[in-house]
Amino acid sequence: MFFDNLKTIALQVLILYLIAGIGFVTDKIGIFKQSDGKRLIDLLFNVILPIAIIHTFMTMEYSKEHVKGILFAFLCAFATHIFGALISKLTFRKRPLKEQGLYHYAMILSNAAFLALPLAKSVIGKEGIFYCSVYVAVFNMVAFTLGIYEISGHQAKLNIKKLIFNPGTISVLIGLPLFLLHPDIPYFLEYPMEIVGNCNSPLAMIVFGTFLANSSFKDMFAKKEIYFVSFIRLVFIPLCMLGLFYLCGVRGQLLEAMIISASAPAATNTAMYAAKYDNDASLGSELAAQSSVLSIATMPVIVALAAVMK
After folding, report:
1. Is 240 in contact with 115 (CB distance < 8 Å)?
2. Residue 199 carries which DSSP code?
3. CB 101 within 8 A of CB 163
4. Distance CA 158, CA 149 (A)
5. What is the DSSP letter of 49?
6. pLDDT tens string 263-310
7. Predicted confidence band at 4 (pLDDT cuts at 50, 70, 90)?
8. What is the pTM of this model?
9. What is the DSSP annotation of 104-157?
10. In whole angstroms, what is the distance from residue 97 CA to residue 88 CA?
11. Mean pLDDT across the stretch 33-51?
């Protein structure tokens, strides 16, 4: 059963990376460059992803199991980020604060929106998006607060407003009442939301491919520190969380969705935030790129293990 799950999940990961290959190739030949991808990220994060999340919540069947699942998803997502933050504090203590913070950011924050959400949709379906959306909301809370604080070398002020006023959290806050109340949404409103939401996965992976196209594969595989960060991000944290969630009684598609999110590579915006806060953007790109390449091998194994345990 494990190997059947491994084969299925590996195929889905391969499909997503083939879509990313479109972005990789179009960047190399100059049709769609990384600079274009950066502009598209704003559309993805601020419009398309929130619409996808809201549509999933408003069309998800109401049940006590799903209500309980949302609460557990929040707990699991916060637990994963807190665990990652605590582990990261034990590492790179002798490095300058900015370099240390960049490594910590890559360890704590996964590529939940760009890779985990599309993979959850492919492997689990609508319920995968449902639970992973909660993880994305928590990711945004952490990224806009602790993440920025770390990557700026403890110079950026914590913006408490960003805990709520960010696209991921707002979309969940809008989606929750729609899920609980299930109002009758007219077809002419619901169907366009479905179409726009379906754009999230392919566009996210194409943009992701442009970032891979601009990464130095020689540099990313030459630094032992990057290997260590990838190990923590791709193997140590997800396996620890898999054990913890299982012991706490988390099962089924919720367990699988949380492990997909926890086992995703370092967030794509690692490099973007590094540039924004005068940190090493090249190192940020290398961290995100190496973990992304290695995740092709690690994610299928860990997610298949979660599928067996669910």
Report:
1. no
2. T
3. no
4. 7
5. H
6. 999 998 898 888 889 999 889 989 999 999 999 999 999 999 999 987
7. confident
8. 0.91
9. HHHHH-B-IIIIIHHHHHHHT-HHHHHHHHHHHHHHHHHIIIIIHHHHTTS-SP
10. 13
11. 89
